[in-house]
Structures are given as structure tokens and as C-alpha cells.
Amino acid sequence: MRSSAAAPALLVLALLVGAAGCAEESTDAGPAVAADPTPTGTPESIPEPSTPEPSTEAPEESEVPFPDEVGPVDGGYGSGNGLGVTGVRTGQGPDFDRVVFDLGGTGTPGWYVDYVRRPRFDGSGEPVPLEGEVYLQVGLRGIGLPFDTGLTAYGDDTTRVPGTGTEGVVEIAPGGVFEGDQLAWIGLTGAERPFRVFALSDPTRVVVDVRHD
């Protein structure tokens, strides 16, 4: 009878000892650490990609020199007819004014630039209302129509861009597309003076630099 009465007491004692051992093991393992709810590499920790501004830095004079005389500059016909004007910007170098024609689409631009007595729209022959005393006509080549290039047409015949930040550029008329070319006009103060034209890439653009008076 004594053995039967002692059995429950021994069972309770064994359970208490086991519980104490588990508590010691939990204490030795150290406090629990909560998991970081934000996994590494989520969009919140990745910076948004930046869109670089097109460069308008002038190339070295030895690469694209200014001509000594005032005359036309022929840059060929370009290729692809898949380009379109997306914007026009102006700026100033140490001794020249700069007009940049930003281009989207595909292909290689060409150009023919020369002074004209009075700007006239291609096709209609109507005068182009434009501020200035002398005028550069910029024929951009390799240009396609918007429904062929997929680009939104930039402005219309009434669009004018002021010569902000320049010394002698008064106003630019971007013009429109006609038979694979886009005629634009640059209104200048003073007399006709030498200019240079060249293309830059990434993004594609055609640059017209005009010497100061």
C-alpha cells in the first residue's frame, strides 16, 4: 500500500523537474528576436532610376570648327526617316549661341542650314511670322510623319520658342514635316555670321551654334 501511495507523488516530482529543465534551456537560448517585416531589396530600398539630361556641352573646336565664311552647311540626307523633333532648347557658349533640336525615334539625322531673306512655310510658300533681323533656315533630314514614327508631333506652325539664355537668338519656329524634311527657322539679331552644325547621340539631337557679333 505504501508503494501505491508514493507513485503519484513521484510522478508529480518528475514533471516538476522536467519543467524546470525546459525553463533553463529557454533561458540559455537568449531572448527571441522578431523578424524584420521589410525584406531586403524591396522597391522601397531601391532608388528610382534617374533620366539623364541631354548634354549641351560644345565639342572641341578642332572637332567641329566654325567656318571662316558665312555659307550653307550640308550634313547629308540622313537615313531611316524614322526621326521626329521632340523639343527645342537654347543656351550660350563662351562666344556663340546654341540651339538644340532634340530628336526621338530611330535613324540618323541629316541637315541643310543656310541664311534666307525671309522664312516661308514649305509647301504653301506663306511667310513665317518670326522675330529677328536675319534668319537661319534649318532643314532637318531623316524625319518621318508622326503616324509612321509613333512620336507625338512637336507643336505646329504657330509654335515659337524664345531664345532664352542667348545673346543673339530671338526666336525659333520649329516648323512641320514635309516630304521627309522638317524646316525650322532661327531668328537672330544683328548681321549674318558664321555658324556650325553637328549631331550628338544618346539622345539624338542636332545642334546649331551661331557666333556672337
List strands and helices in order, with pairings:
Layout: H1 2-28, E1 73-74, E2 79-92, E3 96-108, E4 110-116, E5 134-141, H2 146-149, E6 161-162, E7 169-173, E8 177-178, E9 181-188, E10 195-200, E11 205-211
**Radius of gyration of CA atoms, rounded to a whole number:** 36 Å
What's the end-to-end separation, in Å?
Answer: 126 Å
Overall spatial form: globular
Secondary structure tally: strands: 11
The biggest beta sheet is recorded as: 7 strands, antiparallel
User: From the helix content, strand content and strand pairing, which structural class follows?
Assistant: alpha+beta
Helix content, binned percent: 10-25%
The tally of helices reads 2
Mean pLDDT: 78
Detail the poorly predicted runs.
Answer: 1-62
SSE series: HEEEEEHEEEEEE
The percentage of residues in β strands lies in: 25-35%
How does this structure look, described?
The protein is of the alpha+beta class and 213 residues long. Helix content is 15%, strand content 35%. It is built from two helices and eleven strands, in the order H-E-E-E-E-E-H-E-E-E-E-E-E. It has helices at 2-28, 146-149, and strands at 73-74, 79-92, 96-108, 110-116, 134-141, 161-162, 169-173, 177-178, 181-188, 195-200, 205-211. Strands 1, 4, 5, 6, 7, 8 and 9 form a seven-stranded antiparallel sheet that branches. The protein has a four-stranded antiparallel sheet with strand order 2-3-11-10. The radius of gyration is 36 Å and the shape is globular. Mean pLDDT is 78; it is low at 1-62.
